[in-house]
Structures are given as structure tokens and as C-alpha cells.
Amino acid sequence: MTNKTIPNFGTFQEARDFWNNNSLADFENDLEEAKEVKFTRKKLIIAIDLEKEDEKRLRLIAKQKGVKYSDLIASWVKERLNND
């Protein structure tokens, strides 16, 4: 048995990364049955229509900046909203 503890996750990504690298069996004494679980989404996922060339340019710009293209789009939208 290990002395590991389950951390408090701030995001689904943190939880996914943790459980990808750890076994649930290592924490069986710390687990309890959840009575009710509700997931709330703080972000909205939307779809936009782009020309194929625009999508390629967007991905290239994101790669050059070292960010995910969805994060680049979100930052551009926020920038525009803050300027209007």
C-alpha cells in the first residue's frame, strides 16, 4: 500500500492526467460512493464554418505562436469583444 493521496483537481485535464498515470487500486481505502454527481461546464463549445484555407492558416498561426488553435480563436474573440 502506498501513502499517495488523491489531489483536488482544478480541471478535467488534471484529473485525466493523474488517472492516466495512477491506479485506482492504489487509492481504494480513500474512495467512497458518490450519491449524486453533477458536472457543470464553464465554457461553451461552438462550431464555426471556415474555408479550408482559413483553417489551415489558423492552425499555422497557432503553431507558430505555440498555442492550440482553439485557444487562439478564443483569445481573438475575447480581444474583439473587449474592443467593442
- Average pLDDT reading: 89
> Biggest β-sheet: count, sense, barrel?
none
Helix amount: 40-55%
- N- and C-termini, Cα separation: 57 Å
Backbone CA Rg: 20 Å
Structural class: mainly alpha
Q: Helix tally?
A: 3
| Coarse morphology | elongated
Percent of residues in beta strands:
under 5%
Reading the helices and strands in chain order gives HHH
Spans of 5+ residues with little confidence (pLDDT < 50)? Answer: none
Tell me the total number of β-strands. 0
Keywords:
mainly alpha, elongated, single chain, 0% strand, 84 residues, 46% helix
Question: Quick recap of the structure?
Answer:
It is built from 3 helices and no strands. The protein has helices at residues 12-21, 52-65, 69-83.
Structure description:
This protein has helices spanning 12-21, 52-65, 69-83. It is mainly alpha-helical. Helix 2 (52-65) packs across helix 3.
Fold topology:
Layout: H1 12-21, H2 52-65, H3 69-83
